[in-house]
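Each lists chain and fold; for instance:
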Amino acid sequence: AEGQWGLFSPLTTLFALATRLSADVAVTATIIKVALLMLMAVGVVLLVRSFVVSAAWSITAGVAVPLVGFTVYMDAPSWVTALAKAALLPLAAWGARRLADGRNPGAFLVPAFRLISAGYIFGVLALAVLIFAAIAHHVLLGERAVAWRVFFGGAVAGLATIAVYLPGILTASVTVRS
């Protein structure tokens, strides 16, 4: 019943299987973390490019973001769940922009579900802020149809959030989290 452990996360399952089958857990963990940092870099490049920024500046941002701040200080060296949410957030933001443009909603929903199901509620809160900001942005621009499109994408992600985290909330009174 605990969403924080990523019970619904295909990524968590993949990481667990890779670690279990590994001869050297430290090497496997390092490979997983480097892969997540690379995924973050790709997400940042795609997101920055969606704002019609040159390829050179997009790549610069993609290289810089995984190597600065809290990610390099805390998430990358220690906590794979937090690193996974940090890696998936730029992809979800890029997908939300594509959703607003009327493109395939899967570009938003796939990374959003991966982020939600990975656990670590702060990534979900960041995703919610991202969705609310996108809706407000399009409402202020008078683009109500676009705002509704983003709203519905966010609502689907919200339903996934309920499925992942509600069991943990409902069982909190009988766990150490009470």
